[in-house]
Amino acid sequence: MASSPPPHAPTRPQRTEQANTSQKAEKARAATPHPPRGRRRGLTVAAAGIAVLCAGNLGGGVYVALNADDERGTSGKAASRTQSPPTGVPGVPGGPVANVADERQVAPLRRVVPPDVLAVSRGGPIGRAEIARIGKLRRVQDVIAVAGGAVQLQGRGINTFAVDPSQFRSWTPPGTAKRNELWEALAAGRFVVSTAAADQLRLAQGTRYPVVARTVPQLEMGGSGTLGLPGIDMLVDRKTGTDMGLVPNVAVMVNAPGVDTAKLAGSVKKILGRDADVVNLHERRYQAPAEAGGRPGSYLDLYKEAARSCPGLSWTVLAAIGQVESDHGRNAGRSSAGALGPMQFLPSTWRSYGVDGDGDGKADIMNPYDAIPAASRYLCAHGGGKGGRQLYKAIWAYNHADWYVQKVLNLARAYAVRYD
């Protein structure tokens, strides 16, 4: 079974009524947990009207940034594009992950949407019609368009996205997505940077800095974290981005579970043409093993780290269960039987096996940093580390169905072929 395509969010499965840790999933697909996303390189970003444009980025990549006043921004194909609404595009699957009445309030994290493809325009806003066409590609589930450009901070060019914090947080690595303080700071008009930018520019949280764009606002740094996009080292909220003159809808991110991402990138490139750079985020050059300090940066990392707590248990078994149960966090809501979270624990079982995996003082059934280690703990307690027949029984304990065990084992073998 091939395992190269990214995961696909399943229809909420019917659950057994057994009081076991999790329940069935409706479909089996050979999909992968989103690979590590860290410092990446290799795309082009339109600049926001500054004199000296980005020739490089703090994450180590190379850029050819364009001035927003470049002639391609005022004439030709790019200039004729119609800006799409920032809150979503009619006809595009998915749409906003979370909606709030006041942009200054941040909605809670609802689900994780790992980006599979990133496209950045070199000639101006990406048109509404083009975004809608991308949304109609096979298996595309979510598309988000953001403003962006190259600005100057501390005398260095830095590529910046202007985003809605409530929506965009779901597109970042799990450890960043769950950090409410970052997104609240962004919603309050502060800027957030990548860990690399904070270190290299020696930025201090709570300090104001001049940001050179079409205007030169004094913005306060609200924090830093792994952003998970190649060469994008700074985020501001949409209002700040508009005030700075960032290019609207200069980039789109695409989530298309279960497809060949190389082919998806080619299809997006065909739609956008020569005016855009398209990046397949699953290419190895855009991957990093973990966040700074060794903290897992993706579901793939989390599965591998959690398996180490149970000698003999392969991380591929956890990845397979994570796919079947919630498609790696994409469908983590309450099931018909009451199971919750990325590993679909029943609350009664969670009380016995829940783990505070990230050391924040609480075991959160919805937090992948807690739920995945808890799944490892449950399997280990049922003999999952002994392999063979004992592993079969441990998976069966997770969900009392032989078809479920066979599906998990088949997917685990597919992950092993793909990643080991």
UniProtKB/TrEMBL annotation:
Residues 1-40, 72-96 are annotated as: Disordered. Residues 335-383 form the Transglycosylase SLT domain. InterPro entries: Lysozyme-like_dom_sf, MltB-like, SLT_2. Residues 1-10 have a biased composition (Pro residues). Pfam families: SLT_2. This is Transglycosylase SLT domain-containing protein. It comes from Actinomadura miaoliensis.
